TrEMBL record:
Belongs to the enoyl-CoA hydratase/isomerase family. Residues 319-338 are annotated as: Disordered. This is 1,4-dihydroxy-2-naphthoyl-CoA synthase. The keyword Lyase applies. InterPro entries: ClpP/crotonase-like_dom_sf (IPR029045), DHNA-CoA_synthase_MenB (IPR010198), Enoyl-CoA_hyd/isom_CS (IPR018376), Enoyl-CoA_hydra/iso (IPR001753), Enoyl-CoA_hydra_C (IPR014748). Its EC number is 4.1.3.36. It is an enzyme of class 4 (lyase). Pfam families: ECH_1. Keywords: Lyase. GO terms for cellular component: cytosol. SUPFAM superfamilies: ClpP/crotonase. NCBIfam families: menB, PRK07396.1. One of its GO terms (biological process) is menaquinone biosynthetic process. The gene is PLEST009474.
Length: 338
């Protein structure tokens, strides 16, 4: 983060504290905004110790910079940006004339951007959203649907959004869906596979597949059942109804609902709060929460994190060092912890 940005954020925090109790003020501002209030202050309005240490988060707008995806073609269906001076990448599906429906090209571009965000050590959180306020994403573009999938410029039918779902789940950083308008069909599944969903009060959620002759029997069904329960998941799929943001919140599909004009502001606050926390803790927690659903693939992901941490330890390095020095390893000095 640049010194200028740090000063700016510090300034905002000081500003908050100069107008009284920063934590209580944050809670008031949040409830004013119909955002979730946080129990960082005791009943008398004094911040508790958690609030004193971890309270106020900047509500400043981000300074977004467009990012060319290096060595790949120009993006046509997606906008990729990073917030200058802080570790937030934003990926925007940019087909508002089709309610941000995705075609194979869109999915390919999304995949490029998620790869970049994963590889960039300065990125700590990724936001996925849709252009405009009418839709997050309306799923697969039915106008290019052919036999066996959605047909790209190469004439090949693909269901490549399934690979994108896995890429989002496997990305070892939090991915936040920022949803305004419709998140339906394959677009609804995209928000579900993100780690968190911040919804605008105009958001609408649902699975339309059974009405257009489609279904997602993978994460779209099984992960949904984990989120909303078996009965509700069957209702969502079998009846193919649409649900407003408040109902989606009650169902456990989204983390919070905010007024449309506060959507990005609130999303940035959630991102900034996560960025203040240990990236390794978040990484391993994401892998653990995935592992509970993903069978051997989930254990592999979680296990990879264990290896990553072990490689950073003296004990792990002793094995490598011994090999390089052509001597037997000496693990005797390492304690067997209870
Ligand atoms: C999303 C809507 C409810 C919005 O309704 P609204 O009245 O606000 O807007 P319009 O309907 O007038 O839309 C404006 C404009 O956009 C076009 N459009 C919208 N969505 C799509 C779409 N998905 N594909 C193509 N075009 C779309 C619409 O035709 C209009 O164009 P005009 O030229 O007429 O102006 C409503 O739009 C709606 O219901 N959309 C369809 C939602 C839907 O059924 N999506 C597909 C579900 S199936 C799916 O997504 C899917 C994809 C996969 O890749 C899978 C892979 C593997 C397994 C399963 C998959 C899967 O199920």
């Amino acid at each position: 983060m640049s010194a200028q940005r740090r000063l700016q954020i510090l300034g905002n925090q000081l500003l908050a504290s100069s107008s009284g109790n920063p934590i209580a003020r944050q809670a008031t501002a949040a409830s004013d905004d119909a955002c979730a209030s946080v129990p960082y202050a005791s009943a008398d309005g004094k911040p508790n110790s958690y609030g004193r240490v971890h309270g106020a988060v900047s509500r400043e707008p981000a300074n977004w910079r467009r990012i060319p995806v290096v060595a790949r073609e120009d993006l046509t269906d997606v906008i990729y940006e990073k917030s200058i001076g802080e570790g937030i990448a934003k990926i925007t599906i940019n087909r508002p004339e089709r309610r941000n429906a995705f075609r194979p090209r869109t999915v390919q571009e999304l995949s490029w951007c998620f790869s970049d965000a994963r590889e960039d050590p300065d990125v700590g959180v990724v936001v996925l959203t849709g252009a405009g306020s009418l839709a997050f994403c309306s799923g697969g573009d039915q106008s290019v649907r052919g036999q066996g999938g959605y047909v790209g410029a190469d004439g090949i039918a693909r269901l490549n959004v399934l690979d994108l779902q896995i890429q989002i789940r496997r990305l070892p950083k939090p991915v936040v869906a920022m949803v305004a308008g419709y998140a339906v069909g394959g677009g609804h599944i995209l928000h579900m596979v993100c780690d968190l969903t911040i919804a605008a009060d105009n958001a609408v959620f649902g699975q339309t597949g059974p009405k257009v002759g489609s279904f997602d029997a993978g994460y779209g069904s099984t992960h949904m059942a984990r989120l909303v329960g078996q009965k509700k998941a069957r209702e969502m799929w079998f009846l193919a109804r649409l649900y407003d943001a408040q109902e989606a919140h009650r169902m456990g599909l989204v983390n919070t609902v905010v007024p449309l004009d506060k959507l990005e502001e609130e999303t940035l606050v959630w991102c900034r709060e996560m960025l203040r926390n240990s990236p390794t803790a978040l990484r391993v927690l994401k892998a653990a929460l995935n592992a509970a659903e993903d069978g051997q693939a989930g254990i592999q992901e979680l296990g990879g994190n264990a290896t990553l941490l072990f490689y950073q330890s003296e004990e792990g390095n002793e094995g490598r060092q011994a090999y390089m020095e052509k001597r037997p390893p000496n693990f005797s000095k390492f304690k067997r912890l209870p």
